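Review this fold:
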Amino acid sequence: MTNIAFTQNVDDKFTFIDSLLTDYDGSKPGASVMVIKNGDVLFKKAYGLADIETDMPVTTETNFRLASVTKQFTAACILNLINENKLSFNYTLNDLYPEFPDYGKNITIEHLLTHTSGLIDYEDLIPDTATIQVYDNDVLSMMMTQDSTYFEPGSQYRYSNTAYALLKMIIEKISGLSFNDYLNQIIFNPFGMNRTVAHTEGSTIVENRAYGSSRTDSGFVKTDQSLTSAVLGDGGIYSSVEDMFKWDQALYTDKILPLDLLNKAFTRKQLSSGELIDYGYGWRLKKFLEREVVYHTGSTIGGRTIIYRIPSEKLSVIFLSNRNEGDTLLIAEEIITRIIQQKQ
């Protein structure tokens, strides 16, 4: 089941994308993909099923769990609070939570944003016997019971879902709004991302929802929620390629944040040793084909996602899927490579 969400015929030069995504098509968990250049949609197409139990097909309006692609939205909320002088990069966990253990005196907002805090991974603190989902406030409570970090804050890079769960709690504490309400106020509503939502099962509704699946020896089975699926700050937003197009385009403007602050999100940060890391504020950074790239991948029990942007060329690939497998970075870079080769 292949769906084209616009009436134009797909240009022959993009048929390679169909070949690349053959395994996502038909009666299997699918994907939705969009290629953007200079504000124009060069290609958008949907493949496979959003729900393997009901045979509901994916469309380009299907909302997938973004997983860690969420982090760029969490970071944008924090940067907005900083821009409004309600928060500072230098605020520590103890400034925000006086009851926080002493080790929090050395962990700043900057450390949280850049995965240099050294905070203990909350996933490792969940008992093997746990059956109830964990929430962001539970992550904060877990950190309150710790007395140390993996390393001195600022001295190393270690990817931290814990940090982004705490950032979500800080957004709510400083703004006085729920995470969803704040996202709606500063991002989703202003940019017409009307069906994008930070989702908690039983509390919010995801329209046109893709349900996650995993491959087994007997075929795909639904694996949509895990014990950590209700933690929102590190991975709980659902969106579609149609809404993510609006986000991608907004990132070229000063409508989200002043450009100098927005550009800091796309700039490599420095450890206390002076070493640069390939991460900004909610964005991974790399060079590919001699071009600077800002991107982020996402991975959950039920999906793989990526937004991959080359700002200098205003070229982006958005790929969202609802299966617990697949190298989205490889897929995005294959698409980028072919498009750049065609241009040359």
Remarks:
- DSSP finds ten helices and 16 strands in the chain.
- The first strand starts at residue 2 and ends at 3.
